[in-house]
Amino acid sequence: MRIEEQLRNIEGMLKELLGRRDECEGYLDVRSAAKYASVSTDTVKRWISEGRLEAYRPDTKLFVRKADIDSLMEKSILDTPNLRQIVDSVVNKIRP
Predict the structure, then answer these.
(1) Of 34, 38, 80, which is closest to residue 53 (Cα–Cα)?
(2) pLDDT (0 to 100) of residue 95
(3) Domain ranges of the chain
(4) 35: buried, middle or exposed (CB in 10 Å: 19+, 13-18, 0-12)?
(5) Is the pTM of this model over 0.90?
(6) What CATH class has 26-94?
(7) CA distance 17 to 88
(8) Dihedrals φ, ψ of 63, to 5°?
């Protein structure tokens, strides 16, 4: 294969990749997802293994949708009893 032909092939591959760039928007790798959610990478991996987050592996890295993290965090907040309920529960347990 001649060099010019190889360069055209490489140029074609780059154009294809750049054209698919928008498909990657809205996805985070595990490290970025952990930083975004303010948790450890182990937590993100646990969420994936528990099925709480769907992961995508287009190559060697795992990716999750940013919107899925937002939904998971919102659900976690809604499922957590509010602080007043927690304090009342503790106070009632220690009252004579």
Answers:
(1) 34
(2) 76
(3) 26-94
(4) middle
(5) no
(6) mainly alpha
(7) 56
(8) -130, 150
Asked if residue 85 lies in contact with residue 56, where contact means CB atoms within 8 angstroms, the answer is no
Q: Measuring CA to CA, which residue among 17, 15, 13, 9 is closest to residue 58?
A: 17
pLDDT at 20 over 60: no
Output the DSSP codes for 7-65: HHHHHHHHHHHHHTHHHHTTEEEHHHHHHHHTS-HHHHHHHHHTTSS-EE-SSSS-EEE
Task: Put residue 26 in one of left, alpha, beta given phi > 0 → left and psi -120 to 50 → alpha.
Answer: left
The residue among 19 and 47 whose pLDDT is bigger is: 47
3-state secondary structure (DSSP) of residue 78? helix
* Residue showing tokens 């092939």: 9
